[in-house]
Amino acid sequence: MAALELMRTADLDFHLPPELIGQEPAADRAASRLLHYTRSDKRIAHRVFSDLPALLHPGDLLVFNDARVLPARFMLRKETGGLIESLFLDQPSIGKWHVLLRNVGSYRGPLFFVDADLRATIGEVRTGGEYLLDVETQEPAAAVLSRVGRMPLPPYIKRDKGHDARDDADRERYQTVYASAPGAVAAPTAGLHFTPQLFQELDAGGVERTFVTLHVGMGTFKPVEVDELSEHLMHREAYTISPDAADALNRAKRERRRIVAVGTTAARVLESQPADAEFAAKSDETDIFIYPPYAWRHVGAMVTNFHLPRSTLIALVAAMTGLEEQRRVYREAIEQRYRFFSYGDAMFID
Q1: Percent of the chain scored above 70 by pLDDT?
Q2: pTM over 0.90, yes/no
Q3: Is 86 exposed, middle or buried (CB count within 10 Å of its CB: 0-12, 13-18, 19+)?
């Protein structure tokens, strides 16, 4: 426990040249680069993502997060004409939107959707720029956002305010090809590299797959601001394990087959389950924070992207590779000019 308490956030810091932040996805999803790290011998190999089927073993169970990203960014206009950047977070009820608002100040007058004939008012002020918005509509938020929203790209991906020529492309590419459960406001980015053709190759190689759902929230990407990791207050996210997923996971465990998490979100769902009990179908929330040293309960390997410094995501990677190896791998990735973050390249930890 002492080691956990003493691990410092500064250990997860690194300098990234800005030009290595991916601003657009690879032309072909599976053509992204893939850094292959083998824990048994600490070997690093440089590949392309389409090599992944050859790196997996027959019987491996890939676990994907099938969350579907909402086009959650939209613009509101004050009665005075000023614009407010807005991000939908969730919908407590019809007409009630939980949102982040930027540049709202003390204004409490009517608000007008820039791209729709809709009006809203602020119903409740929360902390951290969060508000409850009363929207004058009986439509579900997802239906409204499908018409007026833009994809909630992280701020390090630069786009023009209001509209950008790449908006339509982002709607397709900031979404996995298997996304089916609407509600996320950030993509499970490790899955962005998979294609239908890659799934066919995985099937042919005897690699199984199943899906869980975790609706990724903005807290996933929030930097850790405390000096010691043990003091960080982890965000909570809702997840679902279906009966089919629980059955697939239990069969893999019984047969001692490897469970491979596709992304940190899938890993968090799996590691939130007890080590000494079977997987159960459930809907719940998790605030699990995985960082070194950590005894993995279920996940035997992981596909992931390259993450922000001082984030809970890079802490999770360090928990799988060891802190010093995570730092060495990231130095190598920077030297080899890998692309980082959501629209970046990938890593397979074997």
Answers
A1: 97
A2: yes
A3: buried
